[in-house]
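hey so i finally got around to running the thing on that chain from the lab meeting. sorry it took forever, my laptop kept dying and i had to restart like 3 times. anyway pasting the input first so we r on the same page abt which one it is
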Amino acid sequence: MSLITAERFGSADWHRRVWRLALPIMAANVSTPLLGAVDTAVVGHLPEPHYLGSVAVGAMVFSFLFWGFSFLRMGTTGPTAQALGRGDDDEVRAILGRALILAVVIGLALIALREPLRWAALAAFDASPAVEGEAAGYIALRLWGAPATLGNYVLIGWLLGLQRPMWTLALQIALNATNIALDLLFVPVMGLGVPGVAIASALAEWTAFALGLFLAARVLKAHGGAWSRARLLDRAAFRRLVALNADIMIRTLCLIGAFAVFTNQGARFGDRILAANAVLWQLQMFTSFALDGFAHAAETLVGGTIGRRRRAELAQAVRASTVWAALVSTGFVAAYLMAGPAIIDLLTGIPEVRATARTYLPWAAALPVLSVWSFQLDGIFLGATWSKAIRNAMLASVAIYLAALFLAVPAMDNHGLWLALAIFMVARGATLAAAYPALARAV
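ok and heres what got predicted. didnt touch it at all, straight out
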């Protein structure tokens, strides 16, 4: 890195800031798959296979449901970082309060709507009656943790905005460690079965939420400022919050839909192709865990520079975070090209799925360097709270993706499907890059 100059790639100080923020986020992200593995292991030792199927269905439902509300995290970091950059401690408090109010209201609404939500979720799966019965109980019980889950999104986003990455790591580790401990207590020891897994998840969310509120109180004491009811309940501020989060929600739902279309299209090629695509998709998911660290660092640093209205610092933050993200993504490409076959063998023991996954491995290996730009620019625009640009770029990218699917899949089958996905990732980055000069001029 001695060859990286401040003029072109950001100063050494900015590189240190990026890594100080990115590393804890990466560590927190890596802890999440471990929880899924424990859930699978404790239920996988129950006597009937439908128990494992019901937890898989229930976990998938909540992954999509809560991912749809992840705007509560993304819509909190940027405004908090900007308020911190301005030195507005009162607004730092008000942002937390407004976002928590919104999160708890949504969470309580989800609990109130648990019956129709449960019906709609199960209607989306063609599962056996035994799986549906257990999954229905899982969904009903786990929904009681919804206010805490959404509140934790807010707390993590707020702590990131205040550049407290180690505290977000502590919160994530506490959540996952509590969940794992309760899994082991409720299922193997107490014999509660699938309901025990759901109760463990809900209780872990509430435990983490309590810890998060404690940490937030300590941060607020250190920052100073005062609570203002008028500012907390300011209608204009709430309208801005809702508008920001609505744009991010549209973006997120489009992203979920695009990935669902990818899975659905792969299923049309048969179980072997579907399974091979699922194996290769794990490579992209692991990549995203790492690259999200740099995107979150960009989000926090960009928000702070915009709060201070320092255009030169904005350029430094963007360059330093992006150069590391690009270097790491290139490393993933090399790793997947060299170790990809071994990783495939580790993920599946079915010979025909292994062979098929190797055929399409080059597409999955190329994705890190194709998608890194969309991750980074998402972080930059979220930090700037330019939510309309994020929304519009995603809508344009989905249109390009659907056109690519229409043209490439009939001509190239599963290769065409992967090509369309690659085009989608590039389009996400390109559409946001086109809007970046206007963002930089606005600082």
